[in-house]
Amino acid sequence: MIRRKGKPNVSPEKTEVEDQDPFNKPPGTPEEQMSEMYRLTLQWTQQLEKSRIAQYTELLNRPWRLIWLNILSGTARGVGIAIGFTFFAATIIYVLQVLGALNLPIIGDYIADIVRIVQRQLELNTY
Asked: pTM of the predicted model, to two decimals?
């Protein structure tokens, strides 16, 4: 038991922490010990399976597969970013066209110029 200054002494009876500690339990029959060992081992292996450590070590032992997966995932990210930016830019252009059609005094002329510039660039790039 750990005693600290300022804390009252605890009676020598069992505390809640000692009741929960598996190392303070008296040894049972060999069958009980084996079943407890089996339960703990099974729990440990299930946690290792959840962490997928076997797949990770297999991947590290096959460097060409690791390179291939990284190339594939990088390409997928690049295509996703390109598609996302296209939709984002199209939405912005559409909003600017709607704002330009409203004929707002100062902002409308500025937005109309931007839309015209973008449309000219799109026409030049398509031919």
From this structure: 0.45
- CA distances (Å), 98 to each of 42, 92, 93, 94, 122, in order? 64, 10, 9, 6, 18
Question: What would the two tokens of residue 122 be?
Answer: 């799109």
Would you give per-residue pLDDT tens digits along the chain (127 residues)? 454 555 555 455 555 555 565 565 656 788 888 888 899 999 988 888 888 887 888 888 999 999 999 999 999 999 999 999 999 999 988 887 787 777 777 777 777 788 888 888 888 876 5
Three-state DSSP string of the chain: CCCCCCCCCCCCCCCHHHHHCHHHCCCCCHHHHHHHHHHHHHHHHHHHHHHCHHHHHHHHCCHHHHHHHHHHHHHHHHHHHHHHHHHHHHHHHHHHHHHHHCCCCCHHHHHHHHHHHHHHHHHHHHC
